[in-house]
Amino acid sequence: MADSRSSALLDENGNLFGLVNVVDALAVLLVVAVVAAGAALVLQPEPESPEPNTTNVTLDLGTQPSYIVTEITEGDTYSPDGDSKLTVTDVHLTPQDDQTRVILRASLQGPPDGDSLTYANAPPRLGRSLTIATSRYEVSGQLRAVGGDNSLAQEDTTVVLRDTMATAEARDVTPGDEIHLAGRTVATIEDVAAYTTDNSTEQTVFVEAELDAHRQQSDRRFGGTQIRRGQTVTLPAEDYTFDGRIEKVDSGLQPTTTDVLLETTVDAETAGRIATGDVTTVAGYEAAEVRTVTTYATQNPDRKQVFVGLSLATLENAGRQQFGSAAVQRGNDITISTQSYELSGTIERVGELEPRGAPTNRTVTLRMTDMRADMADAIRPGMTETNGGETVARVSRVSTEPSVIITTGDNGSVNVVDHPYLRDVTITTELRVRETTSGVQFKGESLQQGSTVVINLGTITIEATVVSVGL
User: Is 256 in a helix, a strand, or coil?
Assistant: First the structure.
């Protein structure tokens, strides 16, 4: 029975089922097994690539021309290879010289490298240079920060800036002016104060500005400039460029009014023009107002000594008042300019409009020696010096006598004789003086025996020595 079944599988020629030789069948089975194993190996799914890491960086592109700046925008991407990708997430623009400083915040993607990643075959180290190439532009910059979120730590910062500008440009600086770069507002002028300088073609301008700053580590920066006193910031407006030195940070102009007494000597014509109520206007802003004027004669009839009480539009800086570039303190010089005159002088008092002391009259005896007879005869009782309708000095008595000379006779004798044409003159005057804690003053100078005074009596100006000061 078993033999009959075996003969049914194999015939006498060794063919399987009478169809295929056994050896050939085994060979076919071997080939099929090999093919199946290869197919299983080939069709096995490849291992999945690790997820890319992502980090945010700050990229400083330096200064760029405007045609490049206008093309850079959030969302721009660049892939230096198949594994790395850069995406611009924030753009910060600031003016620098005649170009624009560009600082970007960007997201980097790349294969993991420990806690970091590999971007374009290297880790994103500080100081490394990266390139961004799109269909519109190609730029390069240095990494300034790694990590953090995808936007710059922007921080609006109020500063006070000072610049010396041409008079015509200074008039264009106006509160509300905005500084635009590539359609972005990077700074706003909030307030303005302007002052004259020693040069009539220039003016000192202070602005309170709000800067679109960003924080880099612990520093606030406006472009590449650290925001601190003494640094220079450029603001290119439409009609002017303001190159300002930072005077204050996190504080505005703090305008106030300060009274001062200014002393100077000017020509008689200018002295006659100075009047109470005169206003100094600089670039459309009131800088000073004349509150009091006192004029005195000098030895030169064409020159006058003036004391001018001024209300100044000052700025507070570190607890001190500032007028233009000068600190408001005794001994400092300031300049004001009106439509009819320019006045430069020395601050005599701060917080006061009048000279020191209480005004009163004193009887003062004066003496002049070796005066020409015709000059001596010109001095008469009743002559006065006036200032703004007020009598400064009045002559009440005049005494004239010949000057004496000493001669030697032929016999060697010494003789005292009258000079033929020189006179000694003694006059009694009523002077308008000021009583101060340190003594009596006349025309801002101490009045005491031996001191010298100058009086303009209209037709003659005299310089006399004080003999006595009465009541």
Answer: strand
Choose the CATH number for 153-249 among 2.40.30.110, 1.20.58.100, 2.60.40.10, 1.10.1660.10.
2.40.30.110
Strand partners, 111: none
Radius of gyration, CA atoms only, the chain: 47
Token output for 302 = 């064409």
Query: Which DSSP helix (H) or strand (E) runs through 11?
Result: none
Sort strands 414-436 and 439-442 into parallel, antiparallel or unpaired: antiparallel
Q: Provide the CATH number for the domain formed by 255-350 in this structure.
A: 2.40.30
Question: How many CB atoms are closer than 10 A to CB 375?
Answer: 14
Mean pLDDT of the chain: 89
At 7 the pLDDT is 52
pLDDT at 210 over 90: yes
- Write the DSSP symbol of residue 10: B
Residue boundaries of the structural domains of the chain: 2-42, 53-146, 153-249, 255-350, 358-469
Position 329, amino acid: Q
Q: In this structure, what is the dihedral angle of CA atoms 8, 10, 16, 22, given to the nearest 10 degrees?
A: 160
